[in-house]
Amino acid sequence: MDDAPEPCITLHPHSRRVRIVIDGTLLADTTRAIELRERDYPPRQYLSRDDVRMDLLTSSHTVTHCPFKGDAIYYSFGEHKYVAWSYERPKEGVEEIEGRLAFYGDEEDK
Known about the structure:
The chain has 110 residues and is mostly beta strands. It has strands spanning 9-14, 18-22, 25-30, 33-38, 44-47, 58-66, 70-77, 80-87, 101-103, 108-109. The radius of gyration is 14 Å and the shape is globular.
């Protein structure tokens, strides 16, 4: 039996524009993000791969585990390591973020 505390995760449509720009390169632009809110963490927008320049990102072999969301894989952009992450097989209750990418907040325009 897992003794982890109950998560406080909610998912919400995020219709405001989200643009991800790193070193002057536009990596993503969307008004169709899903915002994930989790206790003790800042809200994160998860973007559809259709709105992300996946051809400019490189996946890494790094994987981390969240007891509430599952295993995350990470993406880099050029010399910038781990600019984004994705849950390919998220846990029950957060399936909507499957395959979407979240970027670290300081690259986002909200």
